[in-house]
Specification:
The structure is a single chain. The protein has about 220 residues and is mostly helical. It is about 70% helix and about 5% strand. The chain contains five helices and three strands. The chain has a three-stranded antiparallel sheet with strand order 1-2-3, with no helix packed on it. Strand 1 and strand 2 form a beta hairpin. The N and C termini lie far apart (about 135 Å).
Length: about 220
């Protein structure tokens, strides 16, 4: 009886499975037919969307170029936000977004210009070449940090100068002058001699050169007018 029941179950399952399998095969054929029509449409829509996106990109680039002079920035400095290219984004929102970005860039330019002026004046007041400090500023270093760094450099230079002056004073106790040469009486070594140079430089360069010679205890005198 158990075997008979199992055989009946298999018979009924086969009877009901056959119509389903025929129906499933028909559905697969229909799906294949639909796919053959849908796929080209999808490809066409994607191509159309790409074309429209390129048009929106050109429009945004044109808008950036138009607005850039008003903010004194270069169009290439403005990084395009991907949301500006969405078809649902309005022109007003795009314009406002570009304006915000350009305003931020302009502020950075203004801050850098002010920082360069501050660093230059501060460094020149101590007769220090500002170029290296300005490079650090352009790389993103904070102005207040650089001002403190200049102070530290000035203090270090002063300490070096004081040490050098002390060493020079001590050395002069056993030095004699013979014509244009200075001789160490302990060793007989010529420790310095005088030379004449003709130097051509700008006034700022002359100030830097003077500061260098002063800090290194190099004696000099002006000849002529």
């Amino acid at each position: 009886m158990k075997q008979a029941l199992d055989d009946k179950r298999k018979e009924i399952r086969k009877k009901y499975a056959e119509p389903y399998q025929r129906f499933a095969a028909q559905i697969k054929d229909l799906e294949a037919t639909l796919d053959s029509s849908i796929n080209p449409i999808d490809a066409g829509l994607k191509e159309l969307e790409d074309q429209q996106r390129q048009l929106r990109l050109k429009h945004v680039q044109s808008l950036i170029a138009e607005m850039a002079p008003n903010y004194h920035v270069e169009p290439g400095e403005v990084e395009i936000d991907p949301t500006w290219l969405n078809k649902t984004t309005t022109k007003k929102k795009v314009t406002e977004g570009i304006a915000d970005v350009m305003g931020y860039i302009k502020k950075q330019h203004d801050d850098l210009k002010t920082g360069i002026s501050t660093i230059t004046k501060y460094a020149q007041a101590y007769h220090i070449d500002p170029a290296g400090w300005i490079d650090q500023l352009k790389q993103g270093q904070d102005v207040n940090y650089l001002l403190q760094a200049i102070d530290n450099q000035v203090k270090l230079n002063k300490q070096k100068q004081q040490t050098l002056e002390a060493q020079t004073a001590e050395a002069q106790t056993h030095q004699i002058q013979q014509k244009d040469k200075t001789i160490d009486t302990n060793t007989g070594e010529v420790v310095s001699h005088s030379v004449s140079l003709k130097i051509t430089a700008t006034i700022p360069q002359m100030k830097l050169l003077r500061a260098f010679m002063d800090s290194n205890q190099i004696r000099y005198q002006r000849v002529g007018a």
